[in-house]
């Protein structure tokens, strides 16, 4: 063997000395070959497919993969609908009353029993009002605490406002005035009283606190509303109007515009300066410390929340029409004054969502949210709901005014004073809640024996033994 053969031998057996090199080369060449083959096969298939479709002159058929994807999308949509219906209608025991709504419509169409139609309409509105508040809470997860609190107050009062619009359209001005007044009384005394009482019992080992600055601001707005209602009533009673029958109405409309402007400024102040207005003080401390115990998550999406809000509001509007049309007949059939029905019965039904929500938050030691729901709703009714009805009546030619009569105005004045003194120190306990509940019982008894001089249906009640 010469030197040349010895030098060429390692070159010939290079791959045997480095077995990995041969395998990598073979794998690389095989991968490239496979890729080229796949590309050629795809081109052939596409050309064959194009020739076939062009010869037939029809659209290409969709592959089985696309059909399966469509089936999956349809199944996901159906699953989403079923899941939302299950959450909305089968997650709360109050929903057992939902069939009362269609039953009320059926009884009204087939019979003349206004009492039964009224009762069934009331029972049908109760779960809808609760679900309306629940859907608002779901939407509040996506809007933040301040906007969420305003949404809770707004949609929590949707039932009363819808009933008021139908009553105003029917010319039942006293029903409008008394139902709005009853909503304020119910929120400030009954709802807040139950919240203080329930929260005090559930948290008896410590003193509950809340933001007294926010509560004081709401109390000030309520006192402003009382002032706007007091002057027309005093003008009417003392007969000191410059133009009898006109000055009272003109003053009411002017004051209503001022109240609406003041409420708009209040909303602007909330949204710009009070970022954590509806956030509990304990939760704020957790955020400062960087710890949060139980974070709640929404059960449905934002768009489903908006859809259910629309559906519930529409269904409440339908039942409210039957409710308003049967108030007077129910008063005669059940021998109950219209004033008691308007001030006590209707607001309790309309405030079902606030009632349950305020007590639940108070038991969780989130009193700021309870006050935002109870006193915030009262402030919205007083500073927006009442003047809004006056302006709407002005537009449609109805003489809706702020003269709620002296008895109703005095009741509201004393209620706002009691609540203002209860919340001035920023603390709560079960005894404060008990006093508010006792005050509401006294108000309810007073309206049961009160004869409204402008309600014809209440005249026969004078002869009740």
List its salient traits.
19 helices; 2 strands; two-stranded antiparallel sheet
Briefly characterize the structure:
The protein has 465 residues and is an all-alpha fold. It contains 19 helices and 2 strands. The chain has helices at residues 3-12, 14-17, 19-56, 64-90, 100-110, 114-143, 145-156, 158-169, 173-202, 212-238, 247-273, 281-289, 302-325, 327-334, 338-350, 352-363, 367-396, 406-423, 430-449, and strands at residues 208-209, 427-428.
- Name the poorly predicted regions: 1-29, 46-69, 280-294, 456-465
Order of helices and strands: HHHHHHHHHEHHHHHHHHHEH
Structural class: mainly alpha
What percentage of residues falls in helices of 4 or more residues? over 70%
Count of DSSP H/I helices:
19
How much of the sequence lies in strands comes to under 5%
Give the CA-based shape. globular
Strand order of the largest sheet: 1-2
β-strand number: 2
Q: Look at the structure and give the mean pLDDT.
A: 77
Radius of gyration: 34 Å
Q: For the report, how would you describe the main beta sheet?
A: 2 strands, antiparallel
The termini sit apart by 140 Å
């Amino acid at each position: 063997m010469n030197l040349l053969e010895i030098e060429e031998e390692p070159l010939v057996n290079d791959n045997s000395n480095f077995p990995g090199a041969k395998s990598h080369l073979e794998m690389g060449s095989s991968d490239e070959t496979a890729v080229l083959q796949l590309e050629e096969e795809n081109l052939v298939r596409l050309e064959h497919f194009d020739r076939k479709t062009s010869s037939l002159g029809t659209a290409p058929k969709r592959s089985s993969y696309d059909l399966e994807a469509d089936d999956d999308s349809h199944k996901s949509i159906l699953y989403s609908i079923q899941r939302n219906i299950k959450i909305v209608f089968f997650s709360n025991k109050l929903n057992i009353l939902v069939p009362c709504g269609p039953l009320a419509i059926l009884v009204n169409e087939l019979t003349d029993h206004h009492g039964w139609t009224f009762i069934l309409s009331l029972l049908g509105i109760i779960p809808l009002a609760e679900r309306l508040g629940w859907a608002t809470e779901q939407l509040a997860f996506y809007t933040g605490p301040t906007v969420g609190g305003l949404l809770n107050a707004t949609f929590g009062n949707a039932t009363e406002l819808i009933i008021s619009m139908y009553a105003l359209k029917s010319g039942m001005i006293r029903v409008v005035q008394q139902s709005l007044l009853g909503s304020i009384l119910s929120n400030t005394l009954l709802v807040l009283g139950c919240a203080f009482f329930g929260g005090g019992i559930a948290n008896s080992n410590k003193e509950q606190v809340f933001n007294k600055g926010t509560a004081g601001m709401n109390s000030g707005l309520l006192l402003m509303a009382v002032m706007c209602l007091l002057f027309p009533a005093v003008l009417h009673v003392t007969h000191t109007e410059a133009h009898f029958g006109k000055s009272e109405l003109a003053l009411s409309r002017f004051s209503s515009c001022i109240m609406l402007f003041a409420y708009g400024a209040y909303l602007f102040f909330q949204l710009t300066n009070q970022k954590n207005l509806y956030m509990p003080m304990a939760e704020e401390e957790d955020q400062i410390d960087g710890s949060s115990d139980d974070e709640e998550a929404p059960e449905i999406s934002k768009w489903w929340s908006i859809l259910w809000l629309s559906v519930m509001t529409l269904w409440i509007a339908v039942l409210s029409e039957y409710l308003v049309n049967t108030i007077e007949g129910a008063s005669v059939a059940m021998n109950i004054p219209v004033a008691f029905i308007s001030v006590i019965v209707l607001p309790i039904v309309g405030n079902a969502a606030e009632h349950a929500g305020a007590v639940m938050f108070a038991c969780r030691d989130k009193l700021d949210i309870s006050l935002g729901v109870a006193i915030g709703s009262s402030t919205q009714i007083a500073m927006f709901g009442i003047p809004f009805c006056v302006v709407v009546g002005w537009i449609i030619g109805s003489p809706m005014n702020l003269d709620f009569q002296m008895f109703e105005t005095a009741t509201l004045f004393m209620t706002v004073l009691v609540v203002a003194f209860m919340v001035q120190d920023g603390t709560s306990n079960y005894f404060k809640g008990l006093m508010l509940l006792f005050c509401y019982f006294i108000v309810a008894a007073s309206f049961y024996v009160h004869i409204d001089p402008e309600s014809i249906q209440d005249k026969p009640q004078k002869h009740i033994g």
